[in-house]
Amino acid sequence: MKLKDRKAIVTGAGQGIGRSIALKLAQEGADVAIAEMNPDTGNQTAKEVQALGRKALSVSVDVADQKQVQTMMDQLLKAWKRIDILVNNAGFDRPGSLLKVREEDWDAVMGVHLKGTLNCIQALAPHMIENGYGKIINLSSVWGKRGAVSEISYSSAKAGIIGLTKSVARELGRYQINVNAILPGLILTPTIAKMAEKYQNMIIESTPLKRMGKPEEVANVAAFLASDEASFMTGAMVEVSGGWNM
Question: Which of 50, 103, 147, 227 is surrounded by the most beta carbons within 10 Å?
Fold first, then answer.
């Protein structure tokens, strides 16, 4: 188990990609804190982690709220003494085209995706700097590189995560803290399952592998980046998209 006895935090781990990452890290030997706004789904993922023989903590938190994030980090460090891995996965979507996107939707999406990622890194970075060790993995998206019609807020937030990842990687590299991003393509999550089939098919048709990805396929990459096998990778943007963005 390449993550044996590591301590990890995964935000937005109640379902979809976040849940799969939490379970994969546990399978590789890590104890996992589930940071999730929905306590019901968060508790369920925590039970699944425990069923794999690892410790789990479920924390209800709004990552867009800096005070809540700091309180969560303080609680986790008190309980576990250290955190080795941070996976910033929390996010959601409020579609809107350029001329119709509402300010409140823009602020909400940016708040969770981009500000939430920053909040978690800022709260945990001093601890990782002190330890001279850390793995930070941020979930961006192929849409953060190529943009998307009627996804102004989401695409902008995901592009911001790319810039944030590279900047943080430059700042924290001297402390042997690796900071990387994963850019999923079309992945079969509960959200994507609700997408109209014609839009799913448009993306699948332009994907060389001619299918959607599975959350577990993203989780496999996250586990690699969280391990010391990826010790010389930082500031990298790893696309898990079936070749969609080639």
Answer: 227
163-173 pLDDT, tens digit each: 999 999 999 99
Query: Which two tokens mark 69?
Result: 């994030």
CATH of domain 7-240: 3.40.50.720
pLDDT of residue 194: 86
pLDDT above 90 (res 246)? no
pLDDT surpassing 90 at residue 14: yes
CA torsion 96-147-21-58 (nearest 10°) is -30
Beta strands in 36-106 (DSSP E): 56-59, 85-88
Rounded to 5 degrees, what are φ and ψ at 105? -75, -45
Which of 131, 27, 41, 22 has the alpha carbon at shortest distance from 87? 22
Task: Calculate the alpha carbon distances from 238 to 85, 98, 172, 180, 195 in Å.
Answer: 17, 28, 19, 8, 24
Q: Which residues contact 179 (CB under 8 A, 6 or more apart)?
A: 136, 138, 165, 168, 169, 172, 173, 234, 235
Q: Which residue has the tokens 């030997």?
A: 29
Residues 6+ apart with CB under 8 A from 108: 64, 94
| Whole-number Å distance between alpha carbons of 230 and 135 | 9
The answer to whether the CB of 242 falls within 8 A of the CB of 185 is yes
Q: Which amino acid is at 85?
A: I
Q: Is 154 considered catalytic here?
A: yes
Long-range contacts of 128-133 (CB under 8 A, 24+ apart): 128/83, 128/172, 128/175, 128/177, 129/172, 129/175, 129/177, 131/82, 132/175, 132/176, 133/84, 133/176, 133/177
Beta bridge partners of 9: 33, 86
Q: Where does the pLDDT of residue 111 fall: very low under 50, low under 70, confident under 90, or very high at 90 and above?
A: very high
